[in-house]
What does this fold into?
Amino acid sequence: METMVDAMCREMEMRIKGRNRPNISTVYFGGGTPSILSETMLGKLFEAIHRHYEVNPEAEITLEANPDDMSDSLISAWKQLGINRLSIGLQSSHNDRLTWMNRIHSADEGRHAVRRAQDAGIENISLDLMYNFPGSNLQELEEDIDSLLSLAPKHISAYGLTIEPQTVFGKRFKKGELQPLPEEQAVQQFQFVRKKLEGAGFEAYEISNFGQPGFYAVHNTNYWFQKPYDAIGPGAHGFDGVRRTENLPNNSLYIKSILEKGELYQKVEILSDEDRANEHILTRLRTKWGLDLDELNDMSGFSLVQLKEKEMNVFEKEGLIYRQNHVVFLTEGGKLLADRIAMDLMI
It folds into this structure.
């Protein structure tokens, strides 16, 4: 693990070579289990970040944390290092569901971890909620949401369970060990989550993300607005406004390429105007800010009014989208079909 941290620190140095010291307004430790890093290893990463980047004093600095890693001493160290936002994967308040997902922590341990972080002075906390479990119902979902709300989080990310072919759930489904929730019930749970959280004062600023006023995830919002970012570590994906990059995903090969060869191997994809336009359509439609047709035209040269007017008229008649001042928004019904609508509007 220490060698990995050394490689990541070296990667930062390699990435800013030949550039002015970049200004950054967010730092996000995620993509795995960063909460297992010791105070010393995290401190080394922070030292490298501040050496190579100009960090805004008001920067949002988030760490993804597993409840079973959150000791009082480590939480205190996080706060001293400057971490001011935690994203904690509680997922469910039911122990049988946590066991089914192979989560190590119990529901009580998850709640205690959140309260310890709050007692330590980290108040900006985001909690993850999973729903659409096989065999679940609205009563179970309401219990899960009420449990989360009792912890007074500032943000909740709520994800319906999806079954992808190469995942554990996908393999269970293929073997007949798992039956997805019927579509009608899945739709009911999606709608229930939105109604329940909005009723509790959370704003649905993206289809799966709910924040109290002033507590939207700044880092993730930057993704949805296609802002450039550096990404450090094995398998990390970065974006400079024109190119998307992907680091070597294999840990040992990543470390060897940087520390032994002094080279940063990465896949590079140069985005065409069509790629940029389609990413813009896909991400912006999912947000409360909607898809600004004039902005899309200015940044890519493509006019959806000319290219996709027929499709947009159909979606409007079906009650899936509405337009206001050249901005396209999904209706509540449209949010259930967001990916399909985005695909049909892509260039």
Remarks:
- The chain has a mean pLDDT of 94.
- Residues 183-199 form the longest helix (17 residues).
- The chain is about 45% helix and 20% strand.
- Residues 23-224 form a domain with the Transcription Regulator spoIIAA fold (CATH 3.30.750.200).
